[in-house]
Write a structure and sequence with these properties.
Largest sheet: none
Number of domains: 2
Helix content: 55-70%
Number of helices: 15
CATH architecture of the largest domain: Orthogonal Bundle
Shape: flat
Number of strands: 0
CATH superfamily of the largest domain: MetI-like
Strand content: under 5%
CATH topology of the largest domain: MetI-like fold
Order of helices and strands: HHHHHHHHHHHHHHH
Length: about 375
């Protein structure tokens, strides 16, 4: 029986194929997130349409049809718009009162310089290369300079009482001192809540639960109205200082819980390692435990900082003129009452810049520490 050799046949020719769909880059991201299916594509197009209409409307109101300058209090040009365009002329007319309140007009360069010093301190403190002991001395010297600028009374500077302070400097003072003293207080309270001594642990629990169990407005009201009733006759603590103490206690209670969560995330072996090295309680926590605990809770810490910075607007309840309060007071003028939206947008941009800077710094700090 003869065998027939198998002769391989040529494969059929393959026609041209379409190019593969992009899986990466911007096009791939759009396909995966916005146009993955027909319903998703329809919803994306609807949202883009609504967003486009909103952007066009904001452009026409805020830029195209807006009035930027007027002569004095002549708001006829703004009123002629009838809401079609914004009247940004209220900002150059009222910005000094919004930023500095009732501080003497000719001396407003002093709070302006104080604000610049605050911003410079924040910028320097955000650089890790400056995290040395000298930074504390720099902060102490800068805060003394800020106090001398705001109060005056020497070197030819006229004395200005604290009831004339207002605007952005008051907001920065309350937020900066509140966080600067509230953060170490929160660390001590967090350590106290984990203490093995029942008396210390009970006192810390009572403090945290008491402060966190009442709104901030009630603390400010107690500091402004009730606290002076318990003081001896002739002893009167400034209202701004009383509000500052209330903010420190409030910040300390909330930050204590955040730090305590970070302490619980540190493995038990780290504590045992500190004991094996013969470190004392404070050395063990300062060198080993707290750096790891704070690294774990950077996002909630910054979230608390941002919320605390915005909560400074509640000092209105006790008659302190912070940034938001001066903005509300600036539009009491009958000539500008109809343009409150523009004033609130201006103040909102200021709040956004500070809060956004804190948020971006926290993200960079997470990336450096490898916790993102």
């Amino acid at each position: 029986m003869s065998s027939v050799a198998h002769v391989p046949q040529d494969p059929l020719p393959i026609g041209p194929r379409p190019a593969p769909r992009a899986l990466g880059g911007p096009i791939g991201w759009l396909r995966a997130n916005l146009f993955a299916s027909i319903p998703s594509s329809i919803m994306t197009l609807l949202l883009l349409f609504v967003l486009g209409k909103a952007c066009i409307g904001l452009w026409q109101w805020g830029i195209a049809n807006a009035v930027w300058l007027v002569s004095g209090n002549d708001t006829s040009a703004c009123r002629a718009l009838r809401g079609v365009g914004a009247c940004w002329a209220v900002v150059p007319e009222k910005y000094r009162f919004i930023l500095f309140g009732t501080y003497p007009f000719d001396e407003q360069w002093r709070p302006a310089l104080a604000v610049l010093i605050f911003i410079a301190l924040f910028a320097v403190s955000s650089r890790r290369s400056f995290w040395r002991k000298e930074l504390f001395l720099l902060w102490a010297a800068a805060l003394i300079v800020i106090g001398c600028l705001m109060w005056g009374g020497f070197l030819g500077l006229s004395f200005v009482t604290q009831d004339r302070w207002g605007g952005l400097p008051v907001t920065l003072i309350l937020a900066t001192f509140g966080l600067a003293f509230g953060f170490p207080l929160g660390i001590l309270v967090a350590l106290g809540r984990r203490s093995k001594l029942p008396a210390i642990r009970s006192l810390c629990v009572l403090y945290v639960e008491l402060i966190r169990g009442v709104p901030l407005i009630s603390l400010l009201f107690m500091a402004s109205v009730m606290f002076p009733l318990f003081m001896p006759d002739g002893v009167n603590i400034d209202k701004l200082l009383r509000a500052q103490i209330a903010f420190i206690l409030y910040a300390g209670a909330y930050l204590a819980e955040v730090v305590r969560g970070g302490l619980q995330a540190v493995p038990r072996g780290q504590y045992e390692a500190g004991d094996a090295l013969g470190l004392s309680y404070w050395e063990k926590h300062a060198l080993i435990v707290l750096p790891q605990a704070i690294r774990h809770v950077i996002p909630p810490l910054v979230n608390t900082f941002i919320a605390f910075f915005k909560d400074t607007s509640l000092v209105l309840i006790i008659g302190i003129f912070d940034l938001l309060t001066t903005a509300k007071t600036a539009i009491v003028d009958p000539a500008w009452q109809s343009f409150s939206v523009e004033v609130y947008v201006f103040v909102g941009v200021i709040y956004f810049m500070f809060c956004f800077a804190m948020s971006r710094y926290s993200r960079s700090l997470e990336a450096q520490r490898g916790t993102s």
